[in-house]
């Protein structure tokens, strides 16, 4: 699909209309909004081609100017003198501190990864599972959650059980999803593995309420029997205005190259401070703790978040530039980002829902949706619909699941006029 997108190239008419109109966001009255031209200024920080209506910027980030500049400066240092650049920047504390400040967490609770996939795989393969243990997950999670859990189960003898949180995504409710988890917990459940925002349907799960259910189930359990609550958070990270404490989960993995618009090939794995020692690293880290013990011929110390940062050399100019992405979000404000994305998504979903030839699969409510919208058009396969939209300069994607839908995802780089342009093109397909 991506090759196809590239092949089409940047020809054709401009979709971007000058001067965004009155804000639906303000009209919807959800949270403070910056002046309209503030969003145009934010859009101008990106080098995204103006020939396209970019409605899938969540897939893989385009770097905004401050991130591009930070990468370039670091790349120059690496090209000038790689060992000296390594020596200057190898302590990852500034990167972890920037992530921690954004997440409302502590730097020593964060491992750095290259992607959501890397975070989830190191987490699930690192959990102390054994035969007789059960991992509870859902039918809605991404391939990388299901596969990481399969790998973990095959190595440990634990079993994985998948449940549905809803039958019909557009009719999902927070209560129904929480109840589904509550009902499925058993004395053998050791891990609950879910996804914050389903890229299959756009449904946002009630992580906090689920965490409370799990905390109640953990009351009275011995430490080794307690349930660990793990979340693939990638499609809420950079969208919602919450901290890790607000979510209440135990571990949270996310790539920073989607909604955060961080350097491509960056990610974080966060976990509660007291839980890191239970994990078994898979890839040796390049920090002090493990290496010092190895040099001294000592047993490895208890696992820390730093020790769960996979070692080896990385595309360091990207990793070290990650603080620029968090600073970019901070300069806008987490609350404004969340309000903006929700307002544009609501505008889009309300428009789609009003069309008779469209089936909207994502709920309208802000509490159980975020930035991804899944829908179908009668008589068209998702693939055909995606290409039809691309022909009309709207960058849509299809969800990579057994049941696939077309997705659009209005984000901070989009305007109300962009959303209107999507609605116009979908309306024309009636
Ligand atoms: C829900 C979900 N989790 C994980 C991933 C993989 O993310 P990454 O590319 O950061 O590994 C995706 C991909 O878009 C996804 O939709």
Can you walk through the features of this model?
Helix content is 41%, strand content 12%. It has 17 helices and 13 strands. It has helices at 2-8, 24-28, 36-44, 65-80, 82-89, 93-103, 116-126, 143-156, 174-184, 207-218, 244-247, 288-296, 316-320, 322-332, 334-353, 382-391, 416-427; strands at 53-54, 110-113, 134-138, 159-163, 189-195, 228-232, 251-255, 267-271, 358-360, 373-377, 394-395, 397-398, 406-408. The protein folds into 2 domains: 2-55 and 333-427, Aspartate Aminotransferase, domain 1 (Alpha-Beta Complex); 69-330, Type I PLP-dependent aspartate aminotransferase-like (Major domain) (Aspartate Aminotransferase, domain 2, 3-Layer(aba) Sandwich). Helix 10 (207-218) links the parallel strand 5 (189-195) and strand 6 (228-232). The chain is globular and about 70 Å long. The two termini are 25 Å apart. Bound molecules: pyridoxal-5'-phosphate. The site of pyridoxal-5'-phosphate (PLP) has 12 residues, from helix 7.
């Amino acid at each position: 699909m991506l090759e196809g997108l590239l092949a089409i190239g940047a020809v054709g008419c401009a979709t971007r209309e000058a001067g965004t109109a009155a804000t639906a966001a303000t009209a919807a009255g959800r949270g403070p909004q910056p002046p309209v031209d503030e969003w145009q200024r934010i859009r101008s920080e990106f080098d995204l081609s103006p020939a396209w209506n970019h409605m899938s910027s969540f897939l893989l980030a385009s770097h905004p100017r401050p991130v591009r500049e930070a990468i370039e400066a670091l790349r120059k240092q690496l090209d000038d003198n790689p060992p000296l650049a390594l020596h200057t920047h190898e302590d990852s504390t500034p990167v972890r501190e920037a992530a921690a400040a954004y997440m409302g967490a502590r730097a020593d609770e964060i491992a750095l990864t290259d992607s959501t996939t890397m975070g989830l795989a190191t987490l699930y393969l690192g959990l102390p599972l054994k035969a007789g243990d059960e991992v509870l997950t859902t039918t809605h999670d991404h391939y990388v959650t299901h596969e990481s859990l399969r790998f973990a189960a095959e190595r440990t003898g634990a079993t994985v059980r998948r449940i549905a949180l809803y039958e019909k995504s557009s009719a999902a409710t927070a209560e129904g999803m929480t109840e589904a988890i509550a009902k499925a917990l058993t004395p053998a459940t050791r891990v609950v593995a879910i996804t914050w925002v389903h890229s299959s349907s756009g449904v946002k799960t009630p992580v906090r309420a689920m965490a409370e259910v799990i905390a109640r189930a953990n009351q009275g359990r011995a430490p080794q029997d307690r349930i660990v609550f793990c979340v693939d958070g990638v499609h809420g990270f950079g969208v919602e205005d919450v901290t890790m404490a607000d979510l209440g989960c135990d571990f949270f993995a996310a790539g920073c190259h989607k909604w955060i618009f961080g350097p491509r090939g960056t990610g974080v794995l966060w976990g509660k401070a007291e839980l890191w020692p239970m994990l078994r690293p898979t890839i040796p880290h390049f920090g002090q703790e493990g290496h010092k013990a190895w040099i001294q011929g000592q047993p490895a110390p208890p696992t820390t978040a730093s020790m769960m940062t996979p070692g080896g050399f990385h595309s360091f100019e990207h990793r070290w530039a990650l603080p620029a992405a968090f600073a970019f979000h901070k300069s806008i404000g987490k609350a404004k980002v969340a309000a903006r994305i929700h307002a544009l998504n609501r505008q889009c979903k309300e428009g789609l829902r009003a069309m008779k030839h469209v089936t909207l699969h994502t709920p309208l409510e802000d509490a159980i949706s975020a930035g991804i919208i899944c829908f179908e058009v009668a008589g068209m396969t998702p693939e055909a619909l995606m290409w039809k939209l691309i022909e009309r300069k709207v960058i849509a994607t299809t969800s990579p699941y057994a049941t696939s839908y077309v997705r659009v995802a209005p984000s901070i780089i989009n305007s109300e006029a962009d959303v209107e342009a999507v609605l116009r093109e979908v309306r024309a397909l009636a």
